[in-house]
Write a structure and sequence with these properties.
310 residues; alpha/beta; Metallo-beta-lactamase, Chain A; seven-stranded mixed beta sheet; 11 helices; globular
Length: 310
């Protein structure tokens, strides 16, 4: 067995050690949890992967980053209570990251939510909340009057973000943002969560980014999007607009090799691959995602899947 193969297997084994399943009895409620709710990249529904979303649990409160399709159901499948939702953070306003933004909040309200939820993201986050309330006003009014529910609108606190830096801090977590490049959008963010026991960065969608490297320097866990450019070209080849679409997709995401460079520069302790582009090809073996990363990053790497707790 050559040195490169031994290094690959050693890194894979190291990653596996950090993913031993936790039972309800063994889980320490004081520990910060990270759950990959949805790991697909792109707006079309997939059979094997749900829309982009992550949940971080700290101090008994749930923080959701991005709301791709199916996020509420994924939370239930992960054993999370919708009524424990306290903050929602949107990295950017592509539909695979915000399609179920309003729906998550409404379904949490229908599931017993009585505490406010702060919603953060680039503009027009506040406007989107108001328009969703208008869109669902008939159902909301019916359920408020007929079922005796508390008013829904006062629970929603929208915040438009436009700058790097502190987003919010409480007794359990400090969240900071860094603007990352994701053309053609003007603003997209990555978020860092610092708790008493862990630090976690969610990259959102981005090209290779020095700003992300700075945000993720020394972090315990970096969840980073990943793309295989040649697979993207194959996936789109039958479409009439395949050249333009492939150029767009490849131009605003991070290749697997580039992800490895970012993780190495930042000195992260664990790299988790998610938001797979392409996402719908189940024949892509894990090693095809890992091998390009390994050219630059020798630390533990996890190939993410839906409902995986890291």
């Amino acid at each position: 067995m050559d040195l490169q193969r031994r290094s690959f297997l050693s890194g894979l084994a190291a990653a596996t050690l950090q993913l031993e399943p936790l039972t309800a009895q063994s889980r320490d409620p004081r520990k910060t949890r990270l759950i990959l709710l949805g790991t697909a990249g792109g707006p079309r529904p997939r059979r094997a992967r749900s829309g982009s979303a992550q949940a971080i649990v700290a101090g008994g409160q749930v923080y959701v980053v991005d709301c791709g399709d199916g996020v509420a159901r994924q939370m239930i499948l992960a054993g999370l209570r919708l009524r424990d939702l306290r903050h929602v953070l949107i990295t950017h306003h592509h539909s695979d990251h915000n399609a179920d933004f309003g729906a998550l909040l409404q379904l949490a309200w229908m599931s017993g939510l009585v505490t406010p939820v702060d919603c953060w993201g680039p503009a027009p986050t506040q406007e989107m909340l108001q328009r969703y309330l208008q869109y669902q006003q008939y159902d909301i009014a019916l359920r408020t009057g007929d079922e005796g529910r508390i008013e829904f609108a006062p629970l929603l606190k929208g915040h438009d973000l436009s700058n790097d830096g502190l987003v919010f801090a409480n007794d359990h977590v400090r969240v900071t943002a860094a603007q990352v490049p994701h053309p053609p959008l003007e603003i997209a963010f990555a978020y860092r969560f610092d708790t008493s026991d862990r630090s976690i960065v969610i990259s959102g969608d981005t090209t290779e980014s020095d700003a992300l490297v700075r945000l993720a320097t020394g972090v315990d866990v970096l969840v980073h999007e990943v793309m295989l450019a040649e697979r993207v070209k194959e996936m789109l080849s039958a479409l009439p607009n395949h050249e333009m679409l492939a150029r767009s997709v490849i131009g605003h995401h991070t290749s697997a090799e580039q992800v490895g460079r970012v993780a190495a520069k930042a000195g992260v302790k664990l790299l988790v691959l998610s938001h797979f582009v392409p996402a719908e090809d189940p024949t892509v073996p894990d090693e095809e995602w890992l091998a390009p990363v390994r050219r630059h990053f020798s630390g533990p790497v996890v190939v993410g899947r839906d409902l995986l707790e890291v």
